[in-house]
Amino acid sequence: MENRQVVLAQRPVGMVDHTTTTIVTTPAPTCGPNEALIKVGLVSIDPTIRTWMNDAPGYLPPIGLGDVIRSGGGGVVVESKSERYQVGDVVIGVTNWQEWVLATEENRFNVVPSGTGLDLATVMNVLGTTGLTAYFGLLDVGAFKEGDVVVVSGAGGATGSVVGQIAKSRGAGKVVGIAGGPEKCAEVVERYGFDECLDYREPRLTQRIRTSCPTGVDLYFDNVGGEILDAVLANIAMHARIVMCGAISQYNAMERPPGVANTSMLIMRRGQMKGFIVFDFAKRYGDAQLELGAMVLNGTLAHQEHLVHGLEHAPEALNLLFTGGNHGKTLVVVDDSVRLT
User: Fold this and answer.
1) If DSSP codes are grouped into helix, strand and coil, which group holds residue 281?
2) CATH architecture for residues 2-111+304-333
3) Largest CB tally within 10 Å, which of 96, 210, 267, 303?
4) In the chain, which residue ranges form alpha helices assigned H by DSSP?
């Protein structure tokens, strides 16, 4: 068997283009003792992949030139020499951008229970990294309280849309999204149930946030950084909490982005700003997944998956996250025969 892989050909400057990656074909990996061979069905497309392409320090090492692009994904076990996995198990873990991957002692996968009523794309979205990031970022890092006025940037995305819905379900005083364009803003309100959504492409965002949140922003979940973060900081309430999840506005910057100017508001309002990585909460994933799954099944958590077909289109799918061309969680379908039963 052959294994098609998307590898990093050169480090991008700005957006990923045709020179950034290339497709290579290698023999499929061989299953050894305590290992399982997995056919990849879906790969997850996340903004952080773009940061791993840079030769810069981060919470994980940069992707090496010539290495397969790192990402999460889901697949099915087709051969197993491990007690952890049975042939036919659907699993999620670090698959990278390729058709076949080995589960090893170093690269372990989680078996997805059958009979949940959720398909694999939904599991990878709401119960995967994006949903878990929303859950722990809002509730633990942001210390959400009933009655909070919550603002979420990237509100139409996979993580932001879940943040707002959890906040609403737990009694937020108001939930305001920030997204790009009237279509996305309408989707945030109509599909995800936010009270309001502000278009960051329109002028005077700082003033519009003040109008929407006249008592100030108690909790801001930041997915984008940059000017939007600055606009929210100008409007924080006393003892506000700023959750630093991502800075997607800066990932493709060709020049050093300008600094944030309104950090002094954190002093005046006695606020706090804290970053986090969802891996910090790995021991509690199960509890969060139970709650998120129940919300999907009882209809209190809307979700949307944007499927791009073909491994070769993974680089284009990554760019969708930065152009706003996606709706909800972006996944690349590598093999559509891989399904939950």
Assistant:
1) helix
2) Alpha-Beta Complex (3.90)
3) 303
4) 48-52, 120-126, 129-136, 158-169, 182-190, 205-212, 226-233, 264-268, 285-297, 314-323
Show Cβ contacts of residue 298 under 8 Å, excluding neighbours closer than 6 positions. none
Structure tokens that stand for 266 in this block: 């954190």
Specify the amino acid at residue 164. Answer: G
**pLDDT tens digits, one per residue of 146-159:** 999 999 999 999 99
Q: What is the spatial distance between Cα 321 and Cα 48, in angstroms, rounded to a whole number?
A: 10
Query: 129 with 44: CB under 8 angstroms?
Result: yes
Residues of the chain with pLDDT under 70: 249-257, 340-341
Contact (Cβ atoms closer than 8 angstroms) between residue 75 and residue 39: yes
Give the pLDDT score at 257: 67
**CATH code for the structural domain at 129-279:** 3.40.50.720
> What are φ and ψ of residue 195, in 5° steps?
-70, -30
Strand partners, 242: 220, 273
Are 216 and 270 in contact by the 8 Å Cβ rule? The answer is: no
Share of the chain above pLDDT 90, in %: 82
Give the whole-angstrom CA distance, residue 45 versus residue 322: 11
- Output the pLDDT for position 152: 98
- All structural domains of the chain with their residue ranges: 2-111+304-333, 129-279
Positive or negative, the Cα torsion across 308, 310, 314, 316? negative
Question: Global pTM?
Answer: 0.90
Would you put residue 33 in left (φ > 0), alpha (ψ -120 to 50) or beta?
A: beta
